[in-house]
Input
Amino acid sequence: MDLELTDKVAVVTGASKGIGLAVTRALVAEGARVVAGARSVESLSGIPGVIAVAVDLASREGPASLVQRAIDEHGRVDVLVNNVGGVKLRMEGFLAIRDDDFEWSMQMNFFSALRATRAALTAMLKQGGGAIVNIASVNAFFQPDGGTVDYGAAKAALVNVTKALSQEFGSRGIRINDVSPGPVATDLWLGKDGVAQTVARATGVDADTARKSVVASIGGFATGRFTTPEEVATLVVMLASKRTANVTGANYVIDGGLIKTT
Output
């Protein structure tokens, strides 16, 4: 199927690893020209059709400067994928979480996307349309707990704003949707400072035991495995395409059957 993304200009935040890198590669495979932003961009070098931009996306100016780079290079922005984010597992409970911790989560997971969206919308309105895909999380609404309370709150804010903006800008040719992954096989879960290792250190077990324990505690996967970054990227690219032109304000869950309710 032709997703009609050839020569479309896409901006991807947090593009150097995990889901962001998979999304960048998937967009390029569909013929899009990608401006990819991250703190470190070594992993993006040599990918055809990609302009890699080293940028602090948690800063006030960073997201807008990345969008402006796409405009300077290509004259337009057709697709924005707000992927950048981060989570710190809170093992000591709510009373140990400071205002600064909540502020960090909001800057990384909400304000970075909000600022990039504001900049992209300005360009998209001038050109008469575009698509924005936000990477949210099942933590925005599923089994909230103290271990990720600040992360979940930030992602919930992102989901809420997505719905509101989809209503405001839908009649002007701009579609805005969310993709909410469950656990994905990335460093966030499986890296040396990821969820599994953090729980392992706190509980005195090995990382594999910790991973299995955490997955079991949240209900397990119907598929029996983590989602891959490439599977998330496939969904993102579909939502970026005009093939899904009447989909907006939606939140697509990809979690291997983690959520058991309808």
In short: The chain has eight helices and seven strands. Helices lie at 18-29, 62-74, 99-127, 149-169, 187-190, 195-203, 207-217, 229-240. The first helix runs from residue 18 to 29. The two ends are 30 Å apart (CA to CA).
